[in-house]
Design goal:
The complex is a heterodimer of chains A (about 500) and B (about 150).
Chain A: H1 2-14, H2 17-35, H3 41-48, H4 57-82, H5 91-102, H6 106-139, H7 144-161, H8 166-180, E1 183-184, E2 191-192, H9 198-201, H10 206-225, H11 238-241, H12 245-267, H13 273-287, H14 300-315, H15 317-322, H16 329-340, H17 347-352, H18 354-377, H19 379-385, H20 390-409, H21 412-431, H22 435-458, H23 465-468, H24 470-505
Chain B: H1 2-26, E1 30-31, E2 34-35, H2 39-61, H3 73-113, H4 118-139
Antiparallel strand pairs in B: 1-2
Classes of the chains: A mainly alpha (about 500), B mainly alpha (about 150).
Chain lengths: ~500, ~150
């Protein structure tokens, strides 16, 4: 009964008028941010984080979590209507969603996505509620070696899963760790790599970095491309977006499978919503009796990935809250926010700040209900927002990047830092590096270094300690495999190419 | 992409080596009670050097120059315009202040670069400046730079 009283506590926090308002704002802004091309979930959370500093941390995280759920749906609107995913978790939705729009069925595509998101999000929160306390209790037994091994898994998987070139992924990750080394060393007190600049002695704050990489970086890439958008015309009233009975029958098991798969993938450190959508789509195509319809407007091809990305966004909260290991760039930025509010994510969070954790969980239920209402009732409004030309949107986003970076410490230094990382983000995006891996590494860097040094202090066998304790041995091996598998694969394909070239020459 | 990878590989290699050397010369690798402040930075530099070499060697052996990666023509002009204006705005914030700076910035980008009509331009510019002023300065009490005009 612990459970119910905790949940009751949560709802008493989440249902206060201000928190309710924050959840509505979060969902609305989230849908909008997800729908606008060039601003994805990480930039949305990074840009709004400064707004939450004046609030109570609970209200702040409620807004950010609602926003995260909203972005997952917002990306769908652009994917279906203009064949441009608003963010990476909606790439798969383009395949069948836009086909449906071309056949005049954009309404049902958006409708089933909203319903699927609602079901997946709600089941996801139930699972979050069931899994998190148990995981938190279990992880209480973790010492520094387990913590370090877990971070290693998070860092290597996110690197593995983002981008095509693993070498560039790992370069991004190590660069993030190097940036994390700047500033006072917690143990010795040395101001490392600060070059005598006072602002750098405190370290490089992750927020201006995140705003720069994701916000300004994406805008610069968009400015160069100067794209115009053409929105598919159509009717998007409530009656038009309701899926038919046939649609529903075809989709219900797809939604169920997508939910379970999405949540499971979301929990894994380093694997977020995007990867879950690809897996869910592949799975549906495999189990479907009509695989030939996929890619030509099969509604299951919209329902399953859309359910999966919402379930995964909820699942990604589990490792962030219980272990302090974010599962994606977006949760990495939220984790940074938690630390700025003075909350230490990890097993103790559940014991020390129950009103925070359970308030967040309860507000997720509310956010899902609102997401369903807002996304079905206000689709015409969001469609209109899509028609805002990029030339007007771009300066607005840049201004938000500037005020966001400035408001952190009221300092122009942070704005300068944001600009530097904005240019870096543009270059990284253009050349195939991974800003997500860099951000995750920057947030985890100081924690990982402390865990590593503490492990080596208590060890009698040097790095052997990571293989002598069962949990850390499994995790460390998994991380090493994540590093080695792409290397072996690259060598294999290079070998095959050379063989092919030799035979070709003969 | 090949050219970019060569430049990045070489640059990152230099960064990695100076990072490791800098760690060892300025900070302690090992302290009496375990690994010191130079321990992780040194190894990060080593790992980065290996990765940079992989990138560099791969790009040097690559025969296909790959797709063009430098911005050109209209794209370059727009990029330079946006980036230049952003830098100018940040550099002059303490003089013009956030409100006036916002309006000028919006006009330059929306009207001059993208040729939207004046009414749209001004409406958007004042809306954004007003939003920033009321949300940040008034509600959140973030003292955005005020400049010589006093707001």
């Amino acid at each position: 009964m612990d459970f119910l009283s905790n949940l009751a506590l949560g709802f008493s926090v989440a249902l206060t008028p201000f928190n309710l308002l924050m959840a509505v704002c979060g969902v609305l802004l989230g849908i909008l941010i997800g729908a606008l091309p060039g601003v994805g979930p990480p930039s949305g959370v990074a840009l709004l984080l400064p707004l939450t500093f004046g609030m109570d941390p609970t209200s702040g995280i409620i807004m950010l979590a609602a926003l995260y759920a909203g972005t997952m749906y917002g990306g769908t609107i652009t994917a279906v209507l203009i064949n441009t995913p608003g963010e990476s978790a909606s790439v798969v939705t383009c395949l069948d969603g836009h086909q449906m729009a071309l056949q005049g069925r954009a309404g049902p595509a958006l409708g089933i996505a909203a319903i699927g998101s609602f079901i997946a999000g709600t089941i996801g929160v139930v699972l979050l509620m069931l899994v998190s306390p148990a995981l938190a209790r279990w992880s209480l037994s973790f010492g520094p070696p387990e913590t370090f091994a877990l971070m290693l898994v998070g860092l290597t998987t996110v690197t593995l899963l983002t981008g095509e070139n693993p070498v560039k992924g790992y370069i991004s990750m190590v660069l993030g760790l190097m940036i994390a080394m700047v500033g006072f060393d917690i143990i010795s007190g040395d101001a490392r790599y600060a070059f005598g600049i006072p602002e750098m002695m405190d370290g490089i704050d992750f927020l201006p970095v995140a705003i720069g990489l994701f916000g300004l970086g994406e805008v610069l890439a968009g400015a160069e491309a100067a794209k115009g958008t053409a929105v598919a015309n159509g009717r998007y009233r409530l009656r038009d977006v309701m899926p038919s009975a046939v649609d529903w029958v075809r989709s219900r098991w797809a939604i169920a499978r997508g939910t379970v798969l999405g949540f499971a993938v979301g929990i894994l450190p380093g694997a977020g919503p995007t990867i879950s959508t690809f897996l869910a789509y592949t799975l549906e195509k495999k189990v479907s009796k009509r695989p030939e319809e996929f890619g030509h407007g099969a509604i299951e091809g919209v329902a399953a990935p859309e359910a999966a990305n919402n379930a995964a966004a909820t699942g990604a909260m589990v490792p962030m809250l219980t272990l302090g290991i974010p599962g994606s760039a977006t949760t990495a930025i939220m984790l940074g926010g938690l630390m700025m509010w003075g909350l230490r994510p990890g097993p103790l969070l559940f014991e020390k700040n129950p009103q925070f954790v359970w308030g967040l969980i309860a507000s997720q239920y509310i956010a899902n209900v609102m997401l369903l209402i807002l996304s079905t009732a206000f689709i015409p409004l969001f469609v209109r927002a899509l028609r805002v030309p990029y030339g007007i949107l771009m300066p607005i986003i840049i201004l938000f990047c500037i005020t966001g970076a400035y408001s952190l410490k009221n300092s122009v230094w942070d704005v300068g830092q944001m600009l530097v990382f904005g240019v870096l983000g543009y270059v990284m995006k253009k050349l195939g590096y991974s800003p997500a891996a860099l951000t995750l590494a920057l947030v985890l860097g100081p924690l990982a270094e402390r865990a590593l040094r503490q492990s080596l202090i208590i060890s009698d066998a040097g790095a052997g300690i990571f293989f002598m304790r069962p949990i850390s041995a499994v995790l460390t091996t998994a991380a090493l495999l994540a590093v080695l598998v792409p290397v072996v694969r690259a060598l294999k394909s290079a070998y095959r190419r050379r063989e092919a070239a030799r035979f070709g020459a003969v | 992409m090949r050219g970019a990878d060569r430049i990045a590989g070489a640059g990152l290699l230099v960064l990695a080596i100076s990072f490791s050397v800098g760690a060892l010369t300025h900070y302690a690798y090992w302290s009496p009670n375990g690994p010191g402040p130079a321990f992780l930075p040194f190894w990060l530099g080593v790992v980065m050097a290996v990765l940079a070499l992989l990138l560099l060697v791969g790009a040097l052996r690559e025969r296909d120059p790959g797709e063009d990666w430098l911005p050109r023509g209209e794209g370059l002009r727009r990029l330079a315009w946006v980036l230049g204006l952003t830098l100018a705005l940040v550099a002059s914030l303490d003089v013009v202040g956030m409100v006036v700076g916002t309006v000028i910035f919006m006009v330059m980008l929306v009207r001059v670069l993208d040729r939207h009509p004046w009414p749209t331009t001004l409406a958007v510019a004042f809306a954004v400046a007003g939003f920033n002023y009321f949300v940040f300065t008034r509600w959140l009490r973030v003292p955005l730079p005020v400049g010589v005009f006093g707001f």
